[in-house]
Amino acid sequence: MTHSPDLYALIIRLTAQKSGTLPATVGHLAHAAFLDILRQVDPAVSQAIHDINGRKPFTISPLHGYGNGRKGKLSLKAGQTGWLRVTLLDPTLFHTFIQYFLSGNHRPAIRLDNIPFHISEILSSPGSHPLAGYDSLQTLHAKWEQTTRLSDHTTIRLTFRTPTAFSLKNGRFRHMHTLPDPPLVFGQLASYWEALTGDSYIDKEDVRKFAAFGMVVARHKIQTHMVQFRKNKQVGFLGDVQFLIQDKENHPMIRYLNLLADLAFYTGVGSKTTMGMGQMMRIMNYEGRITKRSHPS
């Protein structure tokens, strides 16, 4: 049975319309541009998204294709191309956002600070780009309910494509944790699943406990990276991580952890996912080693 999508990952191809400079980290600018697009189509939806306390049902990537910048600035030339990745976790939000590009009343464009960008293409179909696609929560659930030979799925490999950090509170102090600890990664993904479905496949606290004692980071190739926001800096980690499920007899948990690894393609994980941080994806072609890979273009 085919279910209607409720998870979407879009690649938005951009062309700079004039030369100029932008902050090297444009997450807050892309966030503002996204809300402005929603406002132009449906102000009520834009306001509702803005007013959500806690996790919002979308993520936005950094601006790709324009280099890493120097001294906190990106230099752009007119005609230079790049892209943003946006994921949407709600069908109403998707249809509102995409309507802006389908209305035909204007040439689709966005503005980041003082630079206007023409939108040349939006990729959303599976296979159109490694980071584009759509899926449904029901399909993800059914896929892993029907999966046999679970012993083949006790290694989960994820790549954290943009800097990732977890906001933790220790007594009176709050700090950002910059390591891919299994209970943080999978416990947070379990929280997202519950929020999106209203269903606790397995209670998120049980997932955290299992991940703390029944999973390990078997291998990794990560590094830290500094992100400069408008008023502060944030360190995050990025790179490849190989998680190993040690309890190979706990089939319900193996199913759920693999489901959550698939969900991560759309939700990301950690702090500031609506401003460029925490985007990630699963790597399925596991070969027992972590090697350097080029990013999709």
Automatic annotation (TrEMBL):
Pfam families: CRISPR_Cas6 (PF10040), CRISPR_Cas6_N (PF19308). InterPro entries: CRISPR-assoc_Cas6-like_N, CRISPR-assoc_Cas6_C, CRISPR-assoc_prot_Cas6, CRISPR-assoc_prot_Cas6_N_sf. Residues 158-279 form the CRISPR-associated protein Cas6 C-terminal domain. CDD domains: Cas6_III-like. Keywords: Antiviral defense, Endonuclease, Hydrolase, Nuclease. GO terms for molecular function: endonuclease activity; hydrolase activity, acting on ester bonds. One of its GO terms (biological process) is defense response to virus. Residues 8-138 form the CRISPR-associated protein Cas6-like N-terminal domain. NCBIfam families: cas_cas6 (TIGR01877). This is Uncharacterized protein. It comes from hydrothermal vent metagenome.
